[in-house]
Every structure is written in C-alpha cells, then in structure tokens.
Amino acid sequence: MAKTLRTDSFYANLVAAIAVEDDNSTVKDFCGNQTVTLDTGVAAASGQFGYGVATSTAGGDYSPRGISLSPGLTQPSAGSGTVVVILNSVTTVKDQGYFVESTSTDFFRLRFAGSPTFYPRLYWGSTLEHTSAKAGNIGGMFAFSWDYPNDTQAFWEANASDTFPSVANYTGSRTTGAENPTITRIGGTGLGSIAANVFAYLQFSTVLTQAQLEEIFDSLSNDGSLSIFETASGPTLTSPTGTATGTTTATIGATTDTATGTLYGFVSTSATPPSATDLKAGTGATWSGSVAVSSTGAKTLSATGLTAGTGYYAHLIQTDGSANDSSIVTSAQFTTDALTKKLKLLAHADAQGDSGVAGAVWSAPAGSNITGPTKYGEFTGATFEAALEGGKAVLKVPVADFGGSALTTSDTPVALVRNATNTTGIISCTVIEE
C-alpha cells in the first residue's frame, strides 16, 4: 500500500518528506513540492535509496551517488526550520562525503566540538559508524535546526545504538550572506570514503524539540517505516454475503478494494466473528478456506460440509501483499436447504432415464394381494435418474408429491410404477432424506 503522510501534531509542519514509496520502490517527495531525480546507478529498495561509494584513496570514484531536487528547497531568511536525515550507514562515514548540498557554503555554519567548521555539506569522521543496529540496519540520524532572527542553530546526531540525541547540542551563528540558500542535492559526491543509504530526508517549517526528534528516531525500522507516515491500513472489505446452494453447500464472499493478497473465509453458526488469527487458521469453523486475490471487486469461496436446514454466518478477512489485514466482515445469517423426504425405488435397468412416470404408493408389503393396505396416494410426471445404481434404474419422488408426509425413514412402503409403455410392477421402496 502507498504510504500516506500524517498531518497531526508537528507533522503538519512538514515541507519536504523525501523517502521511498512502498508500492513501486521510487523515491519521491511525499509533500509533493519537489521532483526527485536519482543519479545514475542509484537504487531504491527496501525503504531506502543508495548513495556514496566505498573508496579508500583520494583517486576514487567521483561520480555522484545521490538525488537532485527540483526546484530545490529554499531556506528562509527569516523564520525557523529543522532538517532531519535518516541513514543506514554501512561503513564509516568520513572525509568529504556530502549528505546535504546547498547553493551556499556559508549556510548553517556550525562548529562541532572544536572540529573544523561544518557546513550543510556535513562531512565528518566516524560518528555514524554502523557499530550495532538499532532496528535491523538503521545506521543513524542527524538533524540541524535554525531560528531566525535569533541566529541560533543546533545540531543533533545519534548512531544506531544510541538514544537520540546522544551527544550535546552544538550551536553556532549564521554567517552573513547566507540568505535564502537552496538545498539542491542529497547524497554523496563520491569524494572520500562513504557508503550509506538514506531512509528519509525531512524538512520542517519549525524547530523540533528533542522529544519530537526522539519520536522520529524511535520509530525507525529497517523497512523505512517512520512516524511521519500513517499506520499502514489494510484492504477494505464490503458487502459480505452468504448464500446457501444446497443442503450442505453455500457460496460466501465480499467485495475488496485491494488487488493483492489472500481472502480468508470462515463459516460458523455464530454471528460473533473469530479473531483474525483463528479466522485465517480456521480454528473453530464449520468450514474455512481461502482464495488468492489479484484484482479488486467481488470475490467468492465455496463452502462445503455444512448441515442441512442450519443457519450460518460467513466471516471474512483479507491480508494484502504487505501483510496488512482488513477488518473482519460478517454476512447476514443464511440457512442451508432442508432435507427433502423422498420415496426411493430401484427398478429394472430398462427404465433408466424414463420420464412421465406415474405410480401409486401403499403401506402393504410387496405381493399380489394388496387388499386392505393403506394407500398414501399417487404421483405423476416423475423421471428415472440417468445413472444406474447397482445395475438398477433409480426413481426418487418427494413424499409431498403423493401425500406421504406421514412416512418416516423407517417405513418400507410399496409402489405400483407405470411409465408410458408398460407397468413395472409392485416394488418395495425405502424412504430417504436428502
């Protein structure tokens, strides 16, 4: 599913949120203000985009390994803001590996504990070395903020194993002439030794507090999930249905807005849905099953093994291709067809498939003397089945067709059966339900 930016709390102040889109692994500005172009050879996958090269000598690869922005992020000459960059640092980041490049080398002039002056080009030593993972392969995060006209700036940094921020805040003064610089690139120039991926570049129109920075840092995971995004939502299922198709079968289904994943069905006599785990596993179901989903729209499953004349409910859930679950939806109650009581008789195979069959049914046993038995009634228009059973032709007639509702499955009446050309004779019958 596509990521969606949050608009609550301080996230409403985002002016740039450059990260990887889940659905197609492209780098984009989720705020919609920037066109993002990847340098040649830069890949975007698993929630991060790559930049930098691992070189150990000055004569290394000088080709860029980042992204360019258009029209570029112009910084205000008055007001405030914060830039946050989240990295997967796989080797020591040092020398002249640029993280953020602007049109002004005087913009954000910072001093880092007596080290040389820092620019937003932000090259430094081993502070972001990937010593241990915070979550999977997160390497680190740095942020710098400004507040004009107070001319105060602060810089925070944390590596993978730290609680953010891990070092003291460093302040400096904005250099005269650094008005309205524009950030045009994020990534490496290939100078020095740098090999890292970026999970996100964020820019806010306010100075973030330490607690807000910690919230972002604590949300990092190795798939690029961040607190700036809405919690992933699963598919939406609507119009749940359950329809009996016989005494022991039914069709169940729902309509989905998501063309990936699996639809799970669960049939039970309870209107209360099971848990998502039990639904998928079929725990406690009269019937359960699943079907792969590759398009939106109405989806169905065929339930079997139900009990005749019984009320059931269908419960359904869909898990999409990113393992997000829909809410469980439940159908209205449906009732399987009741069993029909029928007279069954077996006649000579010659009667196979005969139609227009008539007959009379008595309670007396088979024989030539039929005086005195109870006559249940007569039927017409019956048809022998197309298939033989044990070499015999099969005829099944609902007892309602001849007034035999008083018969039970323990009764063995007899019938005189006639078709258009001959009388088959008096035949012993059984009473069945199906």
Residues in helix, %: under 10%
Our estimate of the beta-strand percent is 35-45%
Give a short account of the largest sheet: 8 strands, antiparallel
How many helices in DSSP terms? 2
Question: How many β-strand stretches?
Answer: 28
- Alpha-beta classification: mainly beta
For the residues shown, what is the average pLDDT?
74
Give the terminus-to-terminus CA distance: 48 Å
Low-confidence stretches: 52-60, 90-98, 105-138, 159-179, 189-195
Encode the helix/strand succession as letters. EEEEEEEEEEEEEEHEEEHEEEEEEEEEEE
- Principal-axis shape equals rod-shaped
What Rg is obtained from the alpha carbons, in whole angstroms?
Answer: 38 Å
Care to describe what's here?
It is rod-shaped and about 115 Å long. A hairpin with a 2-residue loop joins strand 4 and strand 5 (48-53). The protein has 434 residues and is mainly beta. The longest helix is centred in the middle third of the chain and has 9 residues, at 210-218. The protein has 2 helices and 28 strands. The model is unreliable at 52-60, 90-98, 105-138, 159-179 and 189-195 (pLDDT under 50). The strands form 6 sheets. Strands 1, 2, 4, 5, 7, 11, 12 and 14 form an 8-stranded antiparallel β-sheet that branches. A 6-stranded antiparallel β-sheet has the order 25-24-27-28-23-26, with no helix packed on it.
Topology:
Elements: E1 14-20, E2 27-29, E3 35-38, E4 44-45, E5 48-53, E6 67-74, E7 79-89, E8 100-102, E9 110-111, E10 117-118, E11 140-148, E12 152-159, E13 182-186, E14 194-204, H1 210-218, E15 237-244, E16 250-256, E17 262-268, H2 276-281, E18 287-292, E19 297-303, E20 311-319, E21 329-330, E22 334-335, E23 341-347, E24 357-362, E25 375-382, E26 393-398, E27 414-418, E28 423-433
Antiparallel strand pairs: 1-2, 1-14, 3-6, 4-5, 5-14, 6-13, 7-11, 7-14, 8-13, 9-10, 11-12, 15-16, 16-19, 17-18, 17-20, 20-21, 20-22, 23-26, 23-28, 24-25, 24-27, 27-28
